[in-house]
Amino acid sequence: MQWLMKVLLKAKLTIIAIAVSIGILCLSLIKIAIYNPIDTPHLDKLQHGFAYFVLSVCWLFALQKKQRKYVIVLCCILFGIVVEILQYTITSYRTGDYLDVLANSFGVLLGAFIFSQVSKKNRLKNEKTSN
User: What pLDDT does residue 6 have?
Assistant: First the structure.
């Protein structure tokens, strides 16, 4: 029974990761009215970083294998680059920006770092309880 629960949870994590990816792609390519009640410079860079942090964490939990971590991080960074290129090439109302690519990449790397720390902590906790 526990095995079945793990399989179902893993499938849901993958669906969530796919949904986050599609959500980021759609939000990156649609025309959005800019609403910024507080004049915060570079607020969009924080939003980019947060979105790609969530993206990387979702995929890392969905495909939780140590040897895949670097591939997942690379794919998330490449996804951010492709989205920026698409903004530049196929839309007239969005612009591709190398600073957005940097913010996206920072979010992915931060997500990978946090994931590694949480995984390490959980691994150590499991080793202590199994002894």
Answer: 65
- The CA–CA distances, whole Å, from 59 to 14, 24, 44, 115 equal 7, 13, 23, 10
For 51, the token pair is: 């979105």
Tell me the whole-structure pTM to 2 decimals.
Answer: 0.84
More confident residue, 10 or 25: 25
pLDDT digits (tens, 9 = 90+) for 61-98: 998 866 689 999 999 999 999 999 999 999 888 888 89
Residue of 73, 74, 55, 52 whose CA lies nearest to 116: 73
Distant-in-sequence contacts of 13-22, Cβ < 8 A, 24+ apart: 13/58, 13/61, 13/62, 14/62, 14/63, 16/58, 16/62, 17/55, 17/58, 17/59, 17/61, 17/62, 17/63, 20/54, 20/55, 20/58, 21/55, 21/59, 21/79
SS3 category, 37: coil
Say if residues 89 and 36 touch (Cβ distance below 8 Å): no
